[in-house]
Design goal:
It contains six helices and 14 strands. Helices cover 25% and strands 26% of the residues. Helix 1 links the parallel strand 1 and strand 2. The chain binds one DNA strand of 18 nucleotides through loops.
Length: 253
DNA sequence: ATGGCTTCATAGTGAAGA
């Protein structure tokens, strides 16, 4: 079973690329973030016609998350029940005995921003939410754009990022707290080449120079860790014309 | 070099992303 996560930075703009990628990779489940469209604009038919079910939670301009799947999603939940939020950043669904949670974690903007406070509060709520979910669903996958680079090796130039969001100690502590619940960064379950990232700035030829961060992740619970046999990043779509700034991340269980 | 690029917004001294 192939499960993937991709921040598409506008589904309106990226729909043709998502369809191409689905045809190429044929994931069983694909979590999308940053749809940037309202639910009435969601391209249900386009995905249906290539054999994918969809559940989604969008909003105007910002945020928005969706799960595409070859099988029917069950028990779909939008938002964390313990954190009502006008920003659409969470969608969860079950596929047989696997529970899949797709996240668009707040960016935080800067360490002195209100948005940073919101990010840390959001991550604290996520910890509580996942604690409950893990008790109910031993086979749990938590995927998405976490907007956290867990370690310095996930940062192209750690010294240049000191004091910035995505790498700060409180964010990394929140990440560690999530893993301590019994979740595993699937990417780090395996030997990986160095300097592999999932996001590159649009500016300054950052992709060509591989000046990136690894901030998109697929976490698997203990019960899924044993059957997880592969985890990787597909940089190909980042090379396409008018790409998202994020690449899809994939794990196979 | 506090901008460089992209998206969605509106017609701003743009906002936000990462």
């Amino acid at each position: 079973m192939k499960i993937a996560s991709w921040n598409v930075n506008s589904l309106k703009v990226r729909l043709p690329q998502v369809l191409d990628w689905l045809a190429e990779q044929a994931p069983d489940i694909l979590g999308l973030q940053e749809l940037k469209l309202t639910d009435d604009m969601f391209p249900v038919e386009a995905f249906q016609s290539v054999g994918y079910h969809a559940c989604y939670s969008g909003q105007k301009t910002y945020n928005g998350v969706a799960l595409l799947s070859k099988t029917q999603p069950e028990n779909v939940q939008i938002q964390m029940p313990n954190f009502p939020d006008p920003q659409q950043r969470v969608i969860a669904a079950s596929y047989q005995d696997i529970r899949c949670i797709n996240l668009y974690v707040p960016n935080g903007q800067s360490l002195d921003s209100d948005k940073y406070v919101y990010k840390l509060n959001w991550l604290e709520a996520l910890t509580q939410y996942l604690t409950v979910e893990l008790m109910q669903h031993p086979k749990l996958i938590v995927m998405g754009d976490f907007n956290i680079a867990p370690e310095d090796k996930d940062v192209h130039d750690p010294s240049a990022w000191i004091g910035d969001v995505l790498v700060s100690e409180p964010e990394r502590a929140a990440w560690s707290t999530l893993l301590a619940l019994g979740l595993h960064d699937s990417f780090r379950l395996f030997e990986q080449p160095e300097k592999l990232y999932s996001w590159w700035d649009y500016r300054n030829l950052a992709f060509r120079r591989n000046r990136g961060l690894r901030i998109d992740h697929l976490l698997v619970s203990d019960a899924l860790k044993v059957s997880c046999h592969k985890s990787y990043i597909d940089k190909t779509p980042r090379k396409w014309e008018r790409p998202s700034d994020h690449a899809p991340v994939i794990c196979e269980i």
